[in-house]
Amino acid sequence: KQSTTINHFIMERYQFADLFKTKKEESPLRRTKIVCSVGPSCETVEVLSNMLKAGCNIFRLNCSFGDHELLKGYVERIRQASKESGIECSILGDLQGPKFRTGEFESETIQLEEGKEIQLVASKEKGNESKITTPNDKLVAALKEGDKVLINDGIMELEVTKKDSETQVTTKVIHGGELSKRKGLNVPGTNIKFDDLLEKDKKDALFLLEQQISFIGQSFVQTREDVERLKKFLKENAKEGQFIPKIIVKVEKPKALENIDEIMKVTDGIMVARGDLGVELPFELVPVMQKVIIKKANAANKPVILATQLLQSMMKETLPLRAEVSDVANGIFDGADAVMTSGETTMSPHPVLVVQTMNDIVLNTETHSPPKDVSLSQLVAISDHEHFRHAIISAALEAAEKSNAKSIIVFSAMGTTALRLSKGRPNCPIIAITPKESVAHWLRLCYGVYPIVLDAGKHIESTIAQVEKLTIEKGLTQNGDLVVICGGKSSPLAIRNALKIYHLGEFIEHQSPSKKE
């Protein structure tokens, strides 16, 4: 009986002939955003430009690898690629945070053999077959007999057998392998607290601020105070009127999960960083934690990025594993605003193909996504005390769904109304009109939002006519499309806290010549 019910649901939901169509002739606008990490495989303007054409929305820089000269070169080439391709994009810069890593070695690699002893030493010297060094003395000082030290995302494992001193421990190799320089070190269950930003993070944050980066990813956050500390540092060092990057907290530590509700109150966005999270936690808990974090981020109206190993096999292969395809799709079903590549684009011989593959998976998932299982009113935070905005957002979402609108056009000076609409996850794109370039960069991360920088004129008719022309030129809409248009409290007076439903072209065709600007 249950099988019959499921089959009936599937047949009712999908026309199977349509499932095998590419849908490319429809050119649907993808709503889930794609974040691509930048590295050696994609460092030229040509490759970066092709990645934008393939579907990349945001490029990610990792401050753990490379000096400021290298990173500045990446920034310049990304902006050049955006200019040449005519495709706008934003940049996310990841701070290293209190990430513990191995030092360098006298040779290219060393071999860890199971059962053998090796020292772990707090030192900036190079390691060898008898000792692994790490530049951070806090990690070694915190270790005690019986602790497990995981290396390179848990691929290799050591067990502390003896505390030699505050700067050295003796360990036994539990799981061996080939170890190269600067691999991650994790000690599950050990919380090492830092009362200030690391000097490297301060220097990198100032560099990202100077480069006018849109987002800063904060690594290994444990408390809301960690986030407040970085925000205060950026504010104190920003020039008057300068845009301060939005903070994306990377959830990687069990302590962050304990404090997630407080962290949500102060962060601007969330990244589910499954690599370190899967090392710090039992790996079987990661899928559950992923769903919990995404659900909490959506309830708090925070954009959320799903990261790590989504298309890991494409670091070498030209096709993803079927399990990876399902992983990407399930992240979208969970409610992620964006999906991210790491080594798949930094080290792969075919980074553009990786982005194309991600784009195809996302588009098909969105095209055939299951129906929402909650009402529209539940998708917008009920705790919002701005009653006019809440009413307009709810009405706009319902109007778009009931009228089968092709898009929602929202005037959103600060981006708040557009973000709230995004959390309703409508089945059509949200075109956000904002006068601020910084807001447009922020909204580029949000699900379904396509920002356009435009200063609204005095007359709503002429402004909407201008919006119509821009959206048609950019390929976001077509003449005759049914759209829902609305505005928040900072919108032009004629559309402030209001909603209209109309066909594109009406304002262009009927606009009075006396009102043209």
What's this, in brief?
The chain has 517 residues and is α/β, with parallel strands linked by helices. Helix content is 38%, strand content 21%. Strands 1-2-3-13-14-15-16-17 form an eight-stranded parallel barrel, surrounded by six helices.
What does this structure look like?
This protein is an alpha/beta fold and 517 residues long. 38% of the residues lie in helices and 21% in strands. The strands form 4 sheets. An 8-stranded parallel β-barrel has the order 1-2-3-13-14-15-16-17, surrounded by 6 helices. Strands 4-12-8-9-10-6-7 form a 7-stranded mixed sheet. Strands 20-19-18-21-22 form a 5-stranded mixed sheet, sandwiched between helices. A hairpin with a 2-residue loop joins strand 9 and strand 10 (168-175). Helix 3 runs parallel beside helix 14, helix 7 (224-237) packs parallel to helix 9 and helix 12 (322-334) packs across helix 14. The longest helix is centred in the N-terminal third of the chain and has 18 residues, at 68-85. The protein is elongated and about 80 Å long. The termini are far apart.
